[in-house]
C-alpha cells in the first residue's frame, strides 16, 4: 500500500519509517527543505534510539522517500496521514490546529482517487468533522474519508511501541475507511495486537483520555512521595505495594520532579479546554496540571534546602531532557529548576548525553560540560535531573573525592539510600529518608 505522511517531526518520521518497515511504500512530506535534504542524505534530525538504522534501511530498500512536493508525495496514495504539530495555542491553552487545517486544504486540492485522510497528530474531539467539512466544501466531487489514528509512542521507545503496541486505535465513519486502516496494520496481526475500531470522535478522545490518566498517575505518586517524606515512609515501596495490584499496575508510578515532554503538558491543557467548551468540568485533570506546574518549583526549593547558600557556588547538574533516551527539552523540569537555582546565585555546570544542543538556547548562562566527570569536579553538590543509564553506575568513591562536599540531590531515585550511607555521601531523594 502507498502512504503519504505529511510532517517529518517525531511522530511522522517514526510512523513513516515503521510503516515502510511493514512493507508499505511511504513518502514523507515536509515544507522544511533543509530537513528533507538532510533526510535524503540519511541524517536524522531528532534523537531516537534505532531510528537512524530504520530510516536508512528502508530508504536504501526503496520503501521510504522524502519530498517537499505534496502533489508528488500524494500521487497514488491510498492513505494520507497528517502528522503535523498541534502545540498549545498561545494565551488560552487550546490546541493550535492551524497546521492541521492548512494541510487539509492543500490535500483537498490534490485529491484524485478514493483516499483515506488520517489524523495522526493529537487533535481535540471534533477535529475530524471539521477536516471533512473543510474538504467537502472545497472539493464536493472528491471521493474520500477522514479517519483518526492516534499515536501512543513513548519517546525513547517509539519504534518498539509502534511495532509491538499495546493496542491500535482507529476511528472512522465508514467500513470502507476502516478496511484501509486494517490493511495498513495487518502485519501486527502476527502479534495478535488488539485493534479498536470505533467512531472518529471516540478515537480522538481516547488519546487525550490516555495521556490525562497517565499524567494524573504521575502526579498522584509525586504527592504520595511528599507525604512519605513527612511520615518517614519509602515511596518506592509504596509504589511497589500498590503497583502489584493488577487494577493499578506499576507503570508511571515513579516519583520525580514532575512530567514534561511533547504530550502530557499540552494534551492535558487541550483536554481541559475541550471540557470547558462542552461545559463538562474535569476537576481531577485541572488539579493535575496545577500540581505538576507547582512541582517543578518545589523541586528547585528542595535542592536549595538541601544545599543551603548557593550564591557563587558551582552546582553540577546531570541530565536536562525531560526523560532519558531523547533530546527533547519541551516542558522539561530542568527549564524551571535550573533558572531557579541560578536566580539564587548558583553557578550551574551541566551535562546531558543527547540534549545539550537543544538546551543551550533555552538555558542561558549554563556552563556545558562534555562528560559527567568534568561536571562534578569541585561542585558544591550533584543534582540528578534525568535518569540516563550512564548516570546509574557512577563510581561513588570518585564522586565523593571530586565534589567540594559529598552531597547528592537525586530527583529520580536512581540510587539506593543504603549505598549512599555506606559511601559516606549526604543523599536527598524523592519520597525517601534523607541520609
Q: What is the CA–CA distance across the termini?
A: 60 Å
Major β-sheet annotation? 6 strands, parallel
Strand order of the largest sheet: 3-2-1-4-5-6
For this structure, the CATH topology of the largest domain is Rossmann fold
Mean pLDDT: 96
Identify the CATH architecture of the largest domain. 3-Layer(aba) Sandwich
Detail the poorly predicted runs: none
CATH top level class name of the largest domain: Alpha Beta
Shape: elongated
**Broad structural category:** alpha/beta
The radius of gyration is 23 Å
Helicity level: 40-55%
CATH superfamily of the largest domain: NAD(P)-binding Rossmann-like Domain
Q: How many structural domains does the protein architecture include?
A: 2
The number of helical elements comes to: 17
% residues in beta strands: 5-15%
The total beta strand count reads 14
